Structure formats: C-alpha cells, structure tokens
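---------- Forwarded message ----------

FYI, see the WISP2 protein record below. Original note from H. follows.
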Amino acid sequence: QVCAQLCRRPCYCPWVPPRCPRGSPLVLDGCGCCKVCARRLGEPCDFLHVCDQNQGLVCDYSSAPAGTGGTCNFEDDEEGCEVNGRLYRDGEVFQPSCKIQCHCLDGGFTCIPLCQEDVRLPSPDCPFPRRVEIPGKCCPEWICEGAQEQPLPRDARAAPGAVSPLLRYPCPPWGTEWSACSATCGLGFASRVSNQNRLCRLETQRRLCSAGPCPALPAALPA
C-alpha cells in the first residue's frame, strides 16, 4: 500500500544525480527507482529517503509521532555506546569535548585526556603557581601570581625527602637514570633529569665520565 502511494511507475528521475555531502553515498531510494543521498546517523529519514545501510543504519520510528518520518540510527542488536544522548558505533573514535578522546568498544568506552596533566612546583620566580582556564583555549595553563621572590640562602640544601627552606614541605625525589657516556674513549659527560636540588625543581644535571683510555696515535715518521 505504501509503495502504491509513494512510488510512481515508470520512474521519473532527474538527469543529473544529486551531489551528496562527504560521507553520504548515492543509493537507490525506497522505491528502488532513483538515486538519492543516503541519510547519515541522526538525520531524518522515511520510506523514500533511506539510511546508509553500509554503516548499519536503519530508519528508527520509535521516538517519532505516528505518520511522520524517523531518524537514522543503529540497529538495536548492534553493540554501541551512548554518550550524552548520542549513539556511537562499536570501534568508533570520538571526542565528547576538546579535552578528551574516547573509543567505543564492546558496548563500553574508554577515554584518554588530550590536555597535558603536568604539575608545576613552587619556585623562587613562581612561588604560587595556579592552573587556570584561558579564554579561547581548550586546555588550562599554569600562571604565576602572589608573593614576591624570596632570597635564596647560600647554605640552603634539600636532601632527598627533606623540607626545603623555600618550599616548606617534603620534596619527593624524582629523576631519570644517568645517560651513557658521551665519549667512546677518554673523558666525556653523562646527563640526567632530577629534582634533587635546593629548589626541588626539575633540571638537567651533568657529571664527568670516562669510557677508558683512547688508543695511542701512531708515531709520526721522521721527515
């Protein structure tokens, strides 16, 4: 009955097929007559304007009033993820916001942060660091505000786990391993990143190293 009302025979189609938006292929309409742009996820659909079956979409009439069109959605038996009222396909990667990226998998989803989760410790030039939201930028940034710089005592030392006279709280040791010696023979230097200093700030440290004596140069021949 629907076909008899909506489908005209013979078919009368435009000479030039429609230009579809990116990601929407040309398919036959519900009458199997003319080429139309397949409807994508969340777009309106009806008997003539079909959804993209290659993406597993069907016309969902469950939330539409009787006699009206539906909305392209995934089939109920296909696993997906619903986030903030939107359904994502299994295996789809999406960003609910600019700060996180998520991956839909087996009916659930996992997310990773896109903003750097670094920590800035107080220092003489920035005794009170604070992380704030910057207008026009997605990720928060560190700013310095508050007190004046404090003079650095000459005899100040911060041993691992000790209380720094500037920080006034225990400084947990953190650092990388010493790198390989920069020279293949003779004296060179090795480097590492460590916070074991009186300011408890990450810095690159160097020390001398020896990779063994260099081979003797051949003696010059007499002129």
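H. also flagged this: Residues 81-113 form a domain with the Complement Module; domain 1 fold (CATH 2.10.70).
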